[in-house]
Amino acid sequence: MSTPTISAAQVKELRDKTGAGMMDCKKALTETGGDVEQATELLRVRLGDKALKVGGREATEGTVQSYIHATGKVGVLVEVDCNTDFVARNDDFVAFARDIALHIAAVPTTQYVSEADVPDEVKQGELRVYEQQAADKPENVRPRIAEGKWRKKLEEIVLLNQPHVNGDKHDGKSIEELRAELAGQLGENVVIRRFSRFAVGA
Description:
Helices cover about 55% and strands about 15% of the residues. It has about 200 residues and is an alpha+beta fold. It has a three-stranded antiparallel β-sheet.
């Protein structure tokens, strides 16, 4: 039986509904053949109602933080949301948002928050290029090579997929891992909503 192809839109729908992590959502959707309702039930069993209740609540509070590089030539604004005003003022939450702004300033290739934000035409265009680049390889392995290169590309352009630039401080963890850890610690949904990076002359 072939594995169903799970779209980024399906993952996003399940994440918005449950607040579960991206990989948990993708796995649940794969196991349920892309059925969002069944995947939601599966996540309830695995993660428990409490985790999903928190995640399911809309993140309507939050903070906007900034980072300006010492040279004054690069600056970042980032919005990170949560469920309550109480957490929005929490020192760890604010420090996380600032840390994310610093990371984005240091990684100029960052374009999207999550994989779900990457337009499908961008993905298909890149895959076509990668397959053409692998034209000298046997035809049956080209899609696999292209997919591998695409995963690497996602690490360049998608914020949540990137290891934090300060690897020593964060033990090489990805932004998504740090976000999920903070959400677990605070007991609230933590959503990196959007960001803008400004660079002089760019």
